[in-house]
Amino acid sequence: MNERAAPATVKAFEERLLEVADSLPKRLRQCATFVAANQDRIAVSTVAEMAEGAGVQPSAFMRFCQIMGFSGFSEMQRLFRDSYVGGWPDYATRLDHLREKGEESGIGLLAEFVEAGRASLESLLKTIDPQALDEAVATLARANMIHIAGLRRSFPVASYLAYAFEKMNVPAMLHSAVGKLDNQSVIRAGDAVLAITFSPYSAETVELVENARARGIPAVVLTDTAVSSLRKSGAMLITVSEVDFGAFRSLSATLCVAIMLAVATGTRRVD
């Protein structure tokens, strides 16, 4: 028997996840990180599929469910199925239908990624925290200089933000770590950091954010999991989940948030 009652809502689930994540042993922490970044999969996956995604044995994933307060995976899955019934996009069914049809042509793959992007955007609108967005925009709008950081998969988003800010005459600098030069010395009091990093997190981006926060410089981070280690630094996290197809994830939802941040910052900024 579990000593603690199981979370009754998805929000309560997320709060419990944040509470226990740091104290979990390695394998169970892998479960927590994977679940935080893939909540959309819980309602439609088996425990074996979730365990495989987390890189652990099914028994370890079952233990994680119990630590979260559930009797097992089925009870945890029921919470997400009940919460999303009638509202959560049934992308899995649509993607399965395309696979059954054997759509392997260019247009078939395009349809797969369009569907994944649509699901990501619908999920974004239902899960984004409006208060977090408002606080992020306010922070960026009053910054003397916005320092943008995002490497590897995140780089397209970072470079787009740098381009958008440049066109709106908003002072911004793209930190690309070219030549192993992090340029952290140019981040000054009155500036702000805007970082993009997804699990597994870029060590260079994490270091830049943590160093900035240690100096009292505000940081806004677009990321994919609420249990990101960057939460400890006091950074403002905006969590964005991208639906994948064939283990490939587009940046549909992330770019949507990025353009919103750029436009809202440019609109609110007073030179």
TrEMBL record:
<dbReference type="InterPro" id="IPR046348">
    <property type="entry name" value="SIS_dom_sf"/>
</dbReference>
<dbReference type="InterPro" id="IPR001347">
    <property type="entry name" value="SIS_dom"/>
</dbReference>
<dbReference type="GO" id="GO:0003700">
    <property type="term" value="F:DNA-binding transcription factor activity"/>
</dbReference>
<feature type="domain" description="HTH rpiR-type">
    <location>
        <begin position="11"/>
        <end position="87"/>
    </location>
</feature>
<dbReference type="InterPro" id="IPR035472">
    <property type="entry name" value="RpiR-like_SIS"/>
</dbReference>
<dbReference type="InterPro" id="IPR047640">
    <property type="entry name" value="RpiR-like"/>
</dbReference>
<keyword id="KW-0238">DNA-binding</keyword>
<feature type="domain" description="SIS">
    <location>
        <begin position="136"/>
        <end position="271"/>
    </location>
</feature>
<dbReference type="Pfam" id="PF01418">
    <property type="entry name" value="HTH_6"/>
</dbReference>
<dbReference type="GO" id="GO:1901135">
    <property type="term" value="P:carbohydrate derivative metabolic process"/>
</dbReference>
<protein>
    <submittedName>
        <fullName>MurR/RpiR family transcriptional regulator</fullName>
    </submittedName>
</protein>
<keyword id="KW-0804">Transcription</keyword>
<keyword id="KW-0805">Transcription regulation</keyword>
<dbReference type="GO" id="GO:0003677">
    <property type="term" value="F:DNA binding"/>
</dbReference>
<dbReference type="InterPro" id="IPR036388">
    <property type="entry name" value="WH-like_DNA-bd_sf"/>
</dbReference>
<dbReference type="GO" id="GO:0097367">
    <property type="term" value="F:carbohydrate derivative binding"/>
</dbReference>
<dbReference type="InterPro" id="IPR000281">
    <property type="entry name" value="HTH_RpiR"/>
</dbReference>
<dbReference type="InterPro" id="IPR009057">
    <property type="entry name" value="Homeodomain-like_sf"/>
</dbReference>
<dbReference type="Pfam" id="PF01380">
    <property type="entry name" value="SIS"/>
</dbReference>
